[in-house]
């Protein structure tokens, strides 16, 4: 993954460069705090972007973004390589400026570009699925292990985190000096996503106990600020 | 926008078809409840997906998705038409199944595909910017109106809502019958995004009063369930 400079010209954040950060830890923090990735691929009839569950495996130069979801199949259908862009965005607040020109949203985002490849081998795929399923909460170990047939039917994609960039926008609006003495309000309205109380399935049998990892989500900030 | 059938073959939701809905109202409801769109475009060096602020203008067959953000420029640089995919996703909960194979997320999403064009003309662009700025809350009228130069420097894209599809996943996990009597827990952990109390900018002058539209956000569900 990129160290203190862009990993490649194409992952350089061209706008808002002062806010752009390339440090490995920051990129990992945003990926850890996100819930879904929006994955884009070019198909025969134009680009398509779909939300996918994800996880991160490994660290440093070997780190990879693991993707699971409907798009995996669309990707393989596209048939012109698996060049993807996976973007994770967390909106932290609405930035209300004195001039609409400076309105914005506080956010954390990571853009990963690279060639997606299918994770091969039962053991590799099992490990990848565990990481994806445990991304939000560690629910893998308390579930019924996947069957061989479930594993066969599950497609997991891996994208190297070699080309990743992160952008963070935080704090107050930045208005023009000429507007500071004007009558217009300026500030930020924070946005917080919180997990609620777990709701048991209507067909849950008596005796099936709530896993600690699920119970522990209740009331927590879903984006780990 | 699509009525009761897919607007085009390529916007047919190929997986999870039972959950796919094409009704115009449902698509509009999801777009109204979302905050950012993830917009994908094919560039000379592969697909790129970036978050953008958006709004919806018009209704029926004339409805259009209005986009504003960094990608607008990237789009125009791409130079191979402005074929885009704009996807809005709201995650409503974590679906914990007995088998990880059936783990999922409750969500509402809309996928819009089409040719993006720049909104031309000051009056048209002013109207488009008002709609985008007012998407989360009606903050346009209480701000300083944009100057001619701000307006000139602002690029707004319009994508017709003719090719849009919506997908909603809600409710309990759907496990295999053979798992229902097992010992594993199943249920949903709701995710709720709420606006917090507005925080005035540190450089806010005395006498600048908090607009009602901003004050009204505090404590509300950001995704309008």
List the main descriptive attributes of the protein structure presented here:
disordered N terminus, homodimer, 225 residues, 5 helices, globular, alpha+beta
What does this structure look like?
- The structure is a homodimer.
- By secondary structure, chain A is of the alpha+beta class.
- Chain A contains five helices and eleven strands.
- Chain A has helices at about 25-35, 70-80, 120-135, 150, 210-215; strands spanning about 20, 35-45, 45-55, 65-70, 85-95, 105-115, 115-120, 155-160, 165-170, 185-195, 200.
- In chain A, strand 2 and strand 3 form a beta hairpin.
- The two termini of chain A are about 25 Å apart.
- Mean pLDDT of chain A is about 90; it is low at about 1-5.
- The interface between A and B is large, with 99 and 99 residues.
- Strand 11 of chain A pairs antiparallel with strand 10 of chain B.
Helical region count of chain A? 5
The whole-number mean of residue pLDDT values of chain A reads 88
| Gross geometry of chain A | globular
Radius of gyration of chain A: 20 Å
| Total number of strands of chain A | 11
Helix content of chain A: 10-25%
Q: Which two protein chains have the largest interface (Cβ within 8 Å of the partner's Cβ), and how many residues from each?
A: A-B, 99 and 99 residues
Low-confidence stretches of chain A: 1-7
Distance, first to last CA of chain A? 23 Å
Oligomer: homodimer
Main sheet makeup of chain A: 10 strands, antiparallel
Structural class of chain A: alpha+beta
Provide the β-strand percentage band of chain A: 25-35%
Order of helices and strands of chain A: EHEEEHEEEHHEEEEH
